[in-house]
Amino acid sequence: TVLLNGLLRDSDGKHVKPQPITVEVRRPDDQVSRKFVWEADSSGFYQYQLQPAEEAPTGRWQLVFDLGDGKPQLYEFKVEDFLPERLALELKGSDTPVAPADDPQFDITGRYLYGAPASGNSLTGQVYVRPLREAVAKLPGYQFGSITEADLKHDLELEPVTLDAEGHTTLSVKTEWAAAKSPLQLILQASLQESGGRPITRRLVQPIWPAEQLPGVRALFGSSTGGDDYDDEASKGEAQTNGDGPAEFEIVMADAAGNKLAADNVKVRLIRERRDYYWNYSADDGWSYHFNEKFLNLNEETLNISKDSTARISFPVEWGPYRVEVEDPATGMISSLRFWAGYRWQDNTDGGAVRPDQVKLALDKPAYNDGDTATVTVTPPAAGKGYLLIESSEGPLWWKEIDVPAEGKSYEIPLDKQWARHDLYVTALVIRPGERKANITPKRAVGVLHLPLDRAPRKLALTVTAPEKMRPKQPLTLKVAAKNADGSVPKQVHVLVSAVDVGILNITRYATPDPFA
Questions:
Q1: What integer pLDDT is reported at residue 465 of this predicted model?
Q2: Region Disordered: which residues (predicted)?
Q3: Which among 79, 358, 360, 413 is placed 20 to 30 Å from 191, CA to CA?
Q4: Can you list the domains of the chain with their CATH numbers?
């Protein structure tokens, strides 16, 4: 049985008069399984028990709601065959990165969801080691480690172990990457087995750093693409310049916590990666092409980096592939980044549309009340003219022509009280004009930023008090308390309490929705 609960609200989350709602139930093959009219109760609450047939196909089902406004609303849910989890598995590694020469240690604890330890249960696992190019979460976009370092990818199958009487074991992984000079991530994937039940699998990522501090480099142009945890991050797509000028980079010296450290005499090298291709014929393979690779050191500069700061450097480049390397003289550690200067002969967008540069947008407040005036600072990559807009899912609500200098400019936007909705976005479009004499082509830049409305006074604070344990087939008494944002007690509150098996929540990895997110 699928228990459906619903509330009918407007675009600002306010109560509206209940009305009958026509609902279509669609199967995974997009066929309509059934239709019904959903009626609210006297309090405006919608509830319905949907009973799929026993032979109902598994997969992603849809509910299509028709409110009579010509804008159908969709809600998806899954129908699956499953056994709920009966075990809990906790993995704990080091809170700080480990050195490549050290054997990582993991504390593992297993228990049944009803409280007993998973004594004697078998644990299996795998270890995947991959390069960690973006090694500092607080410094997004910075690349750490040498992109040319080889043998950084390892896959290991761990020997099965048995948990002790307390449901505990310590797992040690013998290092095979002691010589690594780049940051790595060790992905531990562990499965706890249960006789007659389903195994549960959990993952833990353990960073590995070859030094206490590492240089990082970020291209101030283009972008890179990458894969998931199981791909080799060193093969990420290259950044690409637009050919309009020198290639500029930002250099940082950082530790694993994201602290920007001081460093003197940091070496930055520009290297041309030259490939000379040639054809070869063999009786087995026919014609095939190969290449000889040469690395040409074109330029080297020395930088000093202050604490809590970064340094910038630019190199003149011509069309073709390059690599920039940053070396820490104190440790000898190298971080590098590949990039391509100019447009590729195949397609500079890899088959997609031309990607515009980004306009940086910043608001003066975290959220706004109805009728406020929002101040937005527009900072384009280059001076130009364009438009500043307020948009919603129904189209533009407000716009203004702008002429923005390269250093940026602030604009005031009056917020109409009728814009009481939460799909508002500030959009900026800036066009840099071209110059034929300077051989500069026009360039567009776009920025999009959500415009949040302040609804904090309407937020309810809920607390639930429940006993630590409950008995099967026995009533459970809960205490629910609600308070307004100002601490006062609301006059009347409607509460819906649902009890769900945590084993099912673990399978689906269900996250409780936040209406204020």
A1: 94
A2: 225-245
A3: 79
A4: 2-79 (2.60.40.1930), 87-208 (2.60.40.10), 234-341 (2.60.40.10), 357-454 (2.60.40.1930), 457-508 (no CATH)
